[in-house]
């Protein structure tokens, strides 16, 4: 124990402790029953939770008030929350030591079925200029990639855990070169790591549904436990927008699963595809709330009036957008999506693969990038930026500053960071000190 810790524990401080010498040691021994990965029930002590906003004289949020709490975790859920009073527990404990607790993070668009992660560093090979060029490249390299794809996917899951991710929507190639092998290997990895990460799978026709004649394979994949049927650029790759989208939707309807399409096309062909998707989903209630547009670059090429109109339509149809928050010339209309309550999520996309050498798996970094792109620099807006990376845009405090997370009964999936509040965590992206998924400690520095 260093001098600072000694003085903190032997003088009147947080929790009202006045213990010293032998008495303190005996009391501390009662508390320190270390948490192990096998403990389904424990107490997270000295956890910093947000309690509300602090306002200036003009009614503006100037800071965030927090307090220290003990959270009782039982069978993967939060069983009780009480203010920290320095009491001893007979249960195992994990001492948060004043670190901030935030909702667990979700990576809602990631390809871990064909990553180079785990290999010695090398940047991407010479890539093509078009999606079709990349399809040709994949046909050459995928047989070798598949040999070790299970082990690499597991390493990628460990990386995600270290960044605070407890849930991932995993894209997996379904096309003639891979057949169903990519899906099978990914499912093995997820099964091996089922205690560490929760996941959904998208059966993704990376080489086009029509372009590579993959409908039959997608139908087989739909019977193998996938959650979504994907699609790819129905005009520029498949060459027949209506037919491509109809096949995608029909497979989803036939197997009662969702849709998550990769749509990279620009305004000229991408907007008609989005409008067709909206019309189709409105006609089929089974698709509402289960249809997502990944990337959707056409949405970033509309004028303000068009963006407002299409956002309203997306929200009415229950169609979500999953954006990787691209930087450069294309800015997605994320503020407008939020304004009209379009379901919005983000994801890593690639982690060091033949598409890109970038990708840290850090969803908190995505929240920071969003804040930087749209000029969200004050306490309130920085705290709001976190929602792009959490389940159902969950935040500790709502717009009025009322605490809405965590609550008793919530799933115990959360992260611990060295930060005073969520606004600081977004702005500074501190290292994750500990990560829990359904009450299990999956990462600790």
Describe it.
- The protein is of the alpha/beta class and 445 residues long.
- It folds into 2 domains: 42-104 and 398-444, Roll (Urease, subunit C, domain 1); 105-358, Metal-dependent hydrolases (TIM Barrel).
- The chain has helices at 3-10, 21-31, 131-145, 149-162, 181-192, 215-222, 241-255, 267-283, 304-317, 334-339, 363-373, 379-385, 422-428; strands spanning 41-55, 61-74, 77-83, 93-95, 100-103, 105-110, 165-173, 198-204, 228-232, 258-263, 291-295, 319-323, 344-346, 414-417, 432-437, 440-444.
- Strands 6-7-8-9-10-11-12-13 form an 8-stranded parallel beta sheet.
- Helix 7 (241-255) links the parallel strand 9 and strand 10 (258-263).
- Helix 7 (241-255) runs parallel beside helix 8 (267-283).
- The protein is globular, with a radius of gyration of 24 Å.
- 45% of the residues are buried.
- Mean pLDDT is 92; it is low at 1-31.
- This is N-isopropylammelide isopropyl amidohydrolase.
- InterPro entries: Amidohydro_3, Metal-dep_hydrolase_composite, Metal_Hydrolase, Metallo-hydrolase_Enzymes.
- Residues 156-443 form the Amidohydrolase domain.
- Pfam families: Amidohydro_3.
- Keywords: Hydrolase.
CATH class of the largest domain: Alpha Beta
Helix content: 25-40%
Radius of gyration computed on alpha carbons:
24 Å
Q: What's the β-strand tally? A: 16
Report the principal-axis shape.
globular
The tally of helices reads 13
Widest sheet: strand ordering: 6-7-8-9-10-11-12-13
Under CATH, the homologous superfamily of the largest domain reads: Metal-dependent hydrolases
Straight-line N-to-C gap: 19 Å
Q: What does the main sheet amount to?
A: 8 strands, parallel
How many separate domains? 2
